[in-house]
Amino acid sequence: MYIERWLxxxxxxxSGELTREQGKGTPQGGxxxxxxxxxxxxxxxxxxxxxxxxxLRYVRYAxxxxxxxxxxxxxxxxxxxxxxxxxxxxxxxxxxKTKLVYCRDYRRQGNHPMVKFDFLGYSFQPRTxxxxxxxxxxxxxxxxxxxxxxxA
Length: 152
Prior knowledge:
Layout: H1 2-8, E1 11-12, E2 18-19, H2 33-52, E3 57-61, E4 64-68, H3 72-88, E5 117-119, E6 122-124, E7 127-130, E8 137-140, E9 145-146
Antiparallel strand pairs: 1-2, 3-4, 5-6, 6-9, 7-8
């Protein structure tokens, strides 16, 4: 009953106007959206990944996720299967936000077109860091930098 009431509540726009959302899903920016996404994706994605790709490491916050694959072949395979799974659950992956990213560092020196991604306000990309052990400069992807997004 409470979820239904939350979903039917009007949304206050930036201009101060109250509007009723039309269409599927929860209102963008609504307080209930992250909670429902977490509950639904726990079963639709997390449990499914644990059962079908148990060796795969991943991190998810609400509807944002990073899946850590060992190779391009594995990444393509998991992405194909995840697309099928989401469709089966009535969801779809955002075509512009879903991408394969090569995490280049001092061990992985391959040349790929996509080597940067943003997650939860941080930008992950190859950058040089100084080794604490020997002082040498190395390439690292694991350290995040703050992502500054400009409003259009």
